[in-house]
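From the methods appendix. Each design record in this collection lists the tokenized structure first, followed by the designed amino acid sequence. Records were kept in a plain field format so they could be parsed without special tools. The example shown here is representative of the layout used throughout.

RECORD:
FOLD TOKENS (392 positions):
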């Protein structure tokens, strides 16, 4: 799972609270991490593969949200691979991992593996948090018609830049001045924990606000299109609201245990002796939430695909299909239409004015179609008769 305790464990003089959770049934814990991450990895890839008899999802060309959803899944997949690799080494080479506890050891590879694997996991999941925040921002901007595919460059700069900067800064402060002298006080650990949990808390606090504002903006757009608010449009607005709720529900389920566990461990660190009988319930709660983290954190990837697209089925279509080249179809249609000169159409100005008047309506349809993409069930086919889906 993703926890700043992984980096703290790399310190030979680690604190007692970190030693408590990391030494509690390590074989069982690593086995749970491998099992949960493997199941999530396979199901996430299965969800993303094309399915037989299923038309590809169409997204508005001016939207970057489809790319963001894919990048969130990629971050979860790569983070899950890091968990599997790290836990496999811990299970397969216990003697290699035991050298991490040696203060003046000459073998630097155990510490390098500990730090490198922990940074990999933290970086990928932190990037996933930033991408999820960008998704909420992009959804709101698309409805406000202030976003497009070009904004994905800004999202890349913000996401990877902040993720790398916070990760490197937190690790540097934790291991300063050297790996053997880290964790001598909370002044080393607290900045590291802040940089780790800052994007997580940002998603928990800000994303619900942005999603709520987006849903309100969608309702205003649907009412303003034709001056009416039909049952189909109301159903579409509810569908978008449910989708945002599912995303936040998955996030809370997968990461609330991390916040509870870290609060309990910090409380134990502040005690003079964490082995006191009065702290037995606190220790038990910390160990229980630690195991829960190992199961739920890796499952985020699969659960997010369910929130994004729903269950896409088992029938995978791996056949290569020839795609029609756009300019070929355009050329053939142009030749057919221009084989003979057409008469002058004196009503062209009227049609042009109608196209201009429907531009705003088409932009509204694209924005709302983007937000509800991949989330329309078979029972909601009536919604497709709404003007939102005409032309798609």
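DESIGN:
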């Amino acid at each position: 799972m993703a926890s700043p305790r992984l980096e703290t464990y790399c310190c030979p003089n680690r604190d007692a609270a970190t030693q408590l959770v990391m030494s509690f049934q390590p074989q069982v814990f690593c086995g749970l991490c491998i099992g949960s991450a493997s199941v999530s990895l396979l199901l996430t890839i299965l969800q993303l593969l094309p399915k037989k008899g299923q038309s590809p999802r169409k997204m508005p060309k001016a939207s970057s949200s489809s790319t963001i959803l894919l990048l969130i899944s990629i971050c979860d997949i790569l983070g899950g691979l890091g968990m599997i690799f790290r836990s496999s080494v811990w299970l397969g080479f216990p003697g290699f991992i035991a050298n991490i506890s040696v203060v003046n050891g000459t073998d630097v590879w155990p510490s390098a593996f500990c730090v490198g694997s922990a940074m990999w996991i933290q970086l990928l999941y932190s990037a996933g948090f930033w991408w999820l925040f960008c998704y909420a921002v992009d959804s709101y901007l698309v409805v406000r018609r202030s976003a497009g595919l070009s904004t994905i460059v800004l999202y890349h700069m913000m996401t990877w830049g902040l993720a790398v900067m916070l990760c490197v800064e937190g690790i540097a402060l934790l291991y300063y001045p050297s790996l053997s002298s880290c964790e001598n006080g909370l002044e080393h650990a607290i900045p590291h924990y802040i940089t780790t949990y800052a994007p997580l808390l940002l998603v928990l606090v800000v994303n619900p606000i942005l999603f709520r504002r987006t849903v309100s903006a969608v309702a205003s757009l649907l009412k303003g299109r034709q001056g009416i608010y039909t049952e189909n449009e109301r159903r579409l607005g509810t569908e978008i609201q449910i989708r945002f709720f599912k995303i936040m529900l998955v996030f809370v389920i997968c990461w609330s245990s991390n916040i509870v566990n870290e609060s309990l461990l910090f409380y134990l660190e502040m005690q003079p002796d964490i082995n006191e009988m009065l702290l037995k319930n606190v220790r038990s709660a910390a160990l229980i939430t630690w195991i829960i983290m190992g199961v739920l954190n890796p499952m985020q990837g699969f659960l997010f695909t369910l929130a994004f697209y729903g269950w896409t089925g088992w029938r995978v279509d791996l056949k290569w299909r020839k795609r029609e080249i756009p300019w070929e179809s355009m050329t053939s249609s142009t030749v057919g239409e221009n084989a003979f000169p057409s008469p002058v159409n004196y009503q062209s100005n009227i049609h042009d004015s109608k196209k201009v008047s429907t531009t705003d309506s088409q932009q509204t349809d694209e924005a709302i179609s983007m937000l509800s993409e991949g989330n329309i069930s078979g029972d909601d086919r009536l919604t497709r008769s709404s003007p939102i889906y005409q032309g798609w």
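APPENDIX NOTE: Confidence is low (pLDDT under 50) at residues 58-62, 322-359, 376-392.
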